[in-house]
Amino acid sequence: MKNTLLLFTTILLASCGSQKIRTTDLLNKKIDDWHLAAATANYNDYFNLMTNDAVFIGTDATENWQLQEFKAFSKPYFDNGKAWSFTSLKRHIYQHNGVVYFDELLDTQMGICRGSGILKKEDGVYKIAHYVLSITVPNENVASLTELKKQWDINYKKELLNNEEF
């Protein structure tokens, strides 16, 4: 009886571990497929991997794209056959209480960038619901970058503070 219980417990634990690995592999593939769709300018595949209420936050402070706006903005790039090419260098995927979120370092035309996102199930399939892209800046370059964008930041802060919607 003891041996049977031990064997059952071992099988149960092993199957739980392998299920998590399969789920992580599936999620990694989903994110990789999304990036590949952009790199190959496949508009339909790219946006079919996003939820109907997806949000894409770009590197510019003004870029908070709701899905329909992002599709309209992106369409000319995809139609021209040159969207963007992001290849994951390193990725972490987290799952907690049915929420899946991730961060990744990317090789891009802008150098190394960071992406982070949330996946949620829509019609039983995991899709990108929220994605944030940012350009990474080595700490020793922050002061010069801050100086470079100082005037733009001053102007945009004024615009934000004067905006009645905010």
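The above is record 1. Record 2 follows with the same two-line structure.
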Amino acid sequence: MIVNFPQDVRDWLVAHLERGTPPATITAQLEAQNVPAVLAAAIVDTVAHAVARGAPPPAGQLHVDETPVAAAPFRHEEPLHLGRAPVLDAGDRRVQVLARLERPAVALLSGLLDARECAALIALARPRLDAVRVVDPQSGEDVIAEHRSSEGMFFRPLETPLVERIERRIEKLTGIPLAHGEGIQVLRYRPGAQSTPHFDFLLPANAANRESIERSGQRISTMVMYLNDVESGGETAFTEAGLSVTAREGNAVYFQYGNRLGQSDHASVHAGSPVLAGEKWIATKWLRARRFVPRA
């Protein structure tokens, strides 16, 4: 099908996709403007796949597939890197799997960290916290993240014995080499702080992200570790799946969104719900398809 694709519509779609707005949300907005549901889904799906390849379509005539789900379906048949056992070997401890979700591929883990490790990570991170920055999709520059009202810092890989112990635990659990991991990021969310729906994989919409993917491959999975019990709010919400994970000290949620074909699963879109009372501390580890080489 060929549809007219004005410049303002093109720019609006691309801007929303590059900042991580879920395709379903954009489709609903088009439908609210009286665009037929099938056509809206087809347009968004076509543009989303183009943006993911780093080649947003030009304005003018847009060729869209009327059956967008079949256009480039994410192959999610691959099993979780964690395997299917109810109790996992993390090397220096056993970790229980509390729940799994097929799509997106998610596992909720109990006891990945103990109370002392959580407290120690917070103590090490606290004096190094700064406003969270992200790569601006247009300029490629690091800017303060408007969609993440939190403070954070990064540990270097293997920076301390504690960091190394946790990283080797994650390597044992996932089977993904330690060298494929980015440095652990610790985040603090104060009351009212949140992160809006976003993807963890990199959208190749700017030079910085494309260079990062070229150096280290795409992000393929994430381990989010909860460092404290949140008094109220602060859940990790997988918005398209309707799954909400409560933050509990020592627990973790692991989710993967990259497959052997190099595809990234848009169903992995997630958000950090607002903290309603108390604070929320998490430690995040992103894992890559290849050895991680940081930007020089």
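Residues 7 and 59 are 5 Å apart (CA to CA).
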